[in-house]
TrEMBL record:
GO biological process, one term: hemolymph coagulation
Protein's name in the database: CLIP domain-containing serine protease
Similarity-based family: Belongs to the peptidase S1 family. CLIP subfamily.
Annotated organism of origin: Loxostege sticticalis (Beet webworm moth)
Gene3D superfamilies cross-referenced by the UniProt entry: 3.30.1640.30, Trypsin-like serine proteases
Pfam families registered for this protein in UniProt: CLIP, Trypsin
GO molecular function: serine-type endopeptidase activity
InterPro entries: CLIP, CLIP_sf, Peptidase_S1_PA, Peptidase_S1_PA_chymotrypsin, Peptidase_S1A, Ser/Thr_Proteases_Immune/Dev, Trypsin_dom, TRYPSIN_HIS
């Protein structure tokens, strides 16, 4: 069987192809995915990775995954630690010694062969990252190449779908247990007056890839004595470790440390302009029914002339007095910039600034329906069929929440997609 597996894998490699390229030092190299290039991965994992300009090595893309011009004769070390396409830890070994990948390589199924191809470590074509067997990702099983630090493209069908494909927020309702699996909670800590470490969850965020969360800048830099430490993924009810609704139960939440907070350089805490930030998690997260990324938008929802309804989700205050332990959702009408500006005066709703600008969105303005304190940084979503796009990040709004005629204010994600992609590292 070993020879047959190697022959089949060789045919897969031939189908995907490897072209030659010119490296920054003038030598000829191989154009391959960055995860399969030892020299690039070593530099990315070093303390000086900020000095690496990946663009100098980029020679193309495999879907959303950058390809780099790699040395042709790298050193190969079997047994090294690695990560599978789903983000699970594994060991680099020959494909014939990894049972489930050997079976997949022996299959005629295109999705299985693509998964094996994307499991390769180093540049030896028969060495793969052998970890836990892959978990199917619905609704599209052809997502192995999209499970990277880079956000999937909406057309890939590898983002924006929750497991409940048929599928607080003031005036909101509880979500299904597997609804909006990209919604995350942020955890903070501080030392109290008695020297004790105190922790709490406060802001929200949205998972946009297996390594990055998008949130509001004021959730990173405007937290006073509170230090942002962790991302909670797969949460539904904060009161229980494993949540069950009817006959459906989720898994234990995943808690991953924040490695780096990247605040927009032009963020203003006073006007809340450019209220957006990226969080890089300390390790990749594996996707499940309860942990999945949402799609970045491919168009500006503020340019729509139709009556647009958007959805917000989070664990914020539900009646201006207490937070919801259960993830909430609320449907809100979207307003154009001028219509929103017309609804605000400098005195209305207690909003810091009524001078809205083109990179902000407005939604809500109905009595008793709004995002509220604790929802900051969370998602404002546009649903297109079964697909969800992240069109806004909760920024600020009236106080108290849910005032008639005073919409909430959100950062327009589409206006920052280039900034987001520029600041993502593998």
């Amino acid at each position: 069987m070993g020879i047959r597996v190697l022959c089949l894998l060789a045919s897969v490699l031939y189908a995907y192809g490897q072209e030659s390229c010119l490296r920054p030092d003038g030598r000829t190299g191989m154009c391959i995915e960055y995860t399969r290039c030892p020299e690039i991965m070593e530099k990315l994992n070093s303390p000086n990775r900020r000095n690496l300009n990946l663009r100098d090595y980029t020679c193309g893309f495999q879907r959303q995954t950058p390809k780099v011009c790699c040395e042709q004769t790298p050193q190969i070390n079997l047994g090294n630690d690695c990560y599978t396409p789903e983000g699970n830890p594994g060991k680099c070994k020959n494909v014939t010694t990894c049972p489930h990948l050997a079976v997949m390589a022996n299959s005629k199924d295109g999705n299985s062969l693509a998964y094996v191809f994307n499991s390769r470590c180093l540049t030896n074509r028969y060495d793969v990252c052998c970890g836990p067997p892959p978990t199917p990702v619905r609704p599209s099983d052809d997502c192995a190449s999209e499970i990277t630090a880079f956000p999937p493209h909406p057309d890939s069908q590898c983002c924006g779908y929750d497991a409940k494909a048929d599928s607080k927020i003031v005036g909101g309702t509880d979500t299904s247990i597997d609804q909006f699996p990209w919604a995350v909670l942020l955890e903070y800590k501080k030392t109290d007056d008695w020297g004790r470490i105190v922790k709490k969850t406060h802001c929200g965020g949205s998972l946009i890839s297996n390594r990055y969360v998008l949130t509001a800048a004021h959730c990173v830099t405007g937290t006073g004595d509170w230090e942002l430490i962790n991302v909670h993924l797969g949460e539904h009810d904060t009161r229980t470790e494993i949540d069950c609704v009817d006959m459906d139960c989720n898994e234990r939440i995943k808690v991953i440390p924040v490695e780096q907070g990247i605040v927009h350089p032009e963020y203003s805490g006073f006007t809340k302009r450019n209220d957006i930030a990226l969080l890089r998690m300390a390790r990749p997260v594996a996707y499940t029914d309860f942990v999945r990324p949402i799609c970045l938008p491919n168009s500006d929802v503020s340019k729509s002339t139709d009556n647009v309804e958007v959805i917000a989700a989070g664990w914020g205050r539900v009646n201006n007095t207490h937070r919801s332990p259960i993830k909430q959702q609320v449907k809100l009408p979207l307003f154009t910039g001028q219509a929103c500006q017309n609804r605000y005066t400098s005195n209305q709703g207690g909003v810091q600034s009524a001078n809205l600008w083109s990179k902000q969105l407005c939604a809500g303005g109905e009595a008793g329906k709004d995002t509220c304190k604790g929802d900051s940084g969370g998602p404002l979503m546009l649903k297109k069929g079964l697909l969800h796009e992240l069109v806004g990040v909760v920024s600020n709004g009236p106080d108290p929440c849910g005032i008639e005629g005073a919409p909430g204010i959100y950062t327009n994600v589409f206006r920052y997609t280039k900034w987001i992609r520029r600041n993502i590292q593998p």
